[in-house]
TrEMBL record:
Gene3D superfamilies: Aspartate Aminotransferase, domain 1 (3.90.1150.10), Type I PLP-dependent aspartate aminotransferase-like (Major domain) (3.40.640.10)
Name this protein carries in UniProt: Pyridoxal phosphate-dependent aminotransferase
Subunit description: Homodimer.
InterPro entries, per database record: Aminotransferase_I/II_large (IPR004839), Asp_trans (IPR000796), PyrdxlP-dep_Trfase (IPR015424), PyrdxlP-dep_Trfase_major (IPR015421), PyrdxlP-dep_Trfase_small (IPR015422)
Essential cofactor(s): pyridoxal 5'-phosphate
Species of the source: Megasphaera hexanoica
Residue ranges of domain Aminotransferase class I/classII large in the record: 48-404
Record keywords: Aminotransferase, Pyridoxal phosphate, Transferase
Transmembrane spans: none
Length: 417
């Protein structure tokens, strides 16, 4: 490295983003050869069957009706109270857990995860998450001078790996005062895996036993970025009920976001929602997270909050919102079903996909396979232990036949999955 004036903790940091890099090569290809010739499976947004970004119609209509004041005026640091109430309601629906529930507006789910890591772990602490996880977790954790610790999400037969989870968690509880866990379920990015209710029971029961009677705390960050496309509205939210009535040294924080559920990605709106049986912990949650909000992004985005408030206060609009989401959930499901069936037919191994924007094809040597596929104008994201396909962004027409092409590239590279 040449000359550097960065502080020690910042020296050498750079975000090598495999997703953005693949997306950039894809854009070049589209310019040269046209969109029809290219398959872009890198994008983490919903793209319709015609190749256009989906903005929910109810969101478009509502955005257009906002007043200049609603768009530009400063919002209160923790967010408009109406927004926070709506976020809590929309997040939990019929499965609101019992206890003190507090929320702070954040710039997307990212802001919620960052703030939870920042305020509930110490510099140098390890933060526990799954080996199959969204790459930005590493940046968030490292940028705050914490260390990422991975446990294995899946067993060999495709179930939640309770053994790996409990061993790693126990180890961290033994050596740290606070342990922050980030669990992205349902619709895990990149696998599409999600915990069932029994698996949630086992996770929470182990968390309880790990800190029972101890002066130790566990903060469970529940990342539900893809919640609204993960199944029937009430059914996919049932696990939230389990976050109620936990001992006061266990704090679930839901990282809620309007990015996907309201297709407001670039508007940067989300919330961190804390659930606790202790009023002190609840008051502290509001105080310290509000403080961090003030110290980082300051005021949350007014326009996005008003869009969300205007929709959710009107039951007729909520019905339209739900219907649109259900339609896109179905579209993504149909794409995933095609890919999974064809993968099974041609012997391409994939990780257990239940719902969500992505399917993962496990392998070592994904770079080589992705490079070969790019020669055929197919753009997927190479990960350390596999390839990520964004079923949210590839049309059914283009998904058809894709599994066989990936399988051929895997075989040609001499890779055994
Ligand atoms: C797993 C996961 N969590 C959280 C997010 C947060 O996104 P945002 O900050 O836009 O809400 C994303 C977005 O890609 C994600 O994939």
């Amino acid at each position: 490295m040449g000359m550097s004036v960065a502080a020690n903790h910042a020296k050498g940091k750079f975000a090598a983003d495999a997703i953005m890099a693949a997306a950039a090569r894809c854009t070049e290809d589209v310019k040269k050869n046209g969109a029809d010739a290219v398959i872009n499976g890198t994008i983490g947004s919903i793209i319709d069957e015609n190749g256009d970004l989906v903005v929910l119609q109810i969101v478009k209509d509502t955005l257009k009706q906002l007043t200049p004041n609603q768009i530009v005026a400063y919002a209160p640091i923790p967010g408009f109270p109406e927004y926070l109430d709506a976020a809590i309601d929309q997040c939990f629906c019929d499965s609101r857990p019992e206890g003190y529930i507090r929320a702070i507006a954040t710039p997307g789910g990212s802001g919620a995860i960052h703030t939870a890591v920042h305020n509930y772990s110490e510099p140098g602490d390890e933060v526990l998450t799954t080996d199959w996880c969204w790459g930005a977790y590493r940046n968030i954790i490292r940028d705050d001078n914490r260390v990422l610790r991975e446990f294995e999400l899946l067993t060999d037969d495709g179930k939640f790996n309770m053994k790996s989870f409990s061993e790693n968690l126990q180890d961290l509880v033994n050596k740290q005062h606070n342990t922050v866990i980030i669990l992205n379920s349902p619709a895990n990015n990149p696998t599409g895996f999600g915990l069932n209710l029994d698996e949630w029971d086992a996770v929470l029961s182990f968390i309880k036993s790990a800190v029972e009677g101890k002066d130790k705390n566990i903060i469970l960050v529940s990342d539900v970025a893809y919640l609204d496309y993960s199944g029937e509205k009430q059914e996919c939210r049932r696990f939230f009920k389990k976050f109620g009535n936990l001992p006061a040294n266990i704090l679930p924080i839901v990282a809620y976001t309007c990015s996907k559920g309201f297709t407001l990605y670039g508007q940067r709106m989300g919330a961190m929602i804390g659930i606790t049986s202790s009023e002190d912990v609840a008051d502290e949650f509001t105080a310290i997270n509000k403080y961090t909000a003030r110290a980082t992004w300051s005021n949350p985005t007014s326009s996005a909050m008003w869009t969300m408030i205007e929709i959710t206060k009107d039951p007729e609009k909520v019905a339209r919102l739900d219907a649109e989401r259900a339609q896109y959930f179905q579209m993504i499901k149909e794409r995933a079903d095609i890919f999974m069936k064809e993968a099974a037919d041609c012997g391409l191994k994939i990780l257990p996909y239940l719902s969500g924007f992505f399917i993962t094809i496990p392998m070592i040597g994904s770079d080589k396979v992705c490079a070969a596929l790019e020669k055929e104008h197919i753009y997927l994201v190479p990960l350390k232990k596999g390839i990520r396909l964004a079923v949210c962004s590839v049309s059914k027409k283009k998904i058809a036949g894709l599994a066989a092409k990936v399988k051929a590239a895997v075989d040609a590279a001499g890779i055994v999955q």
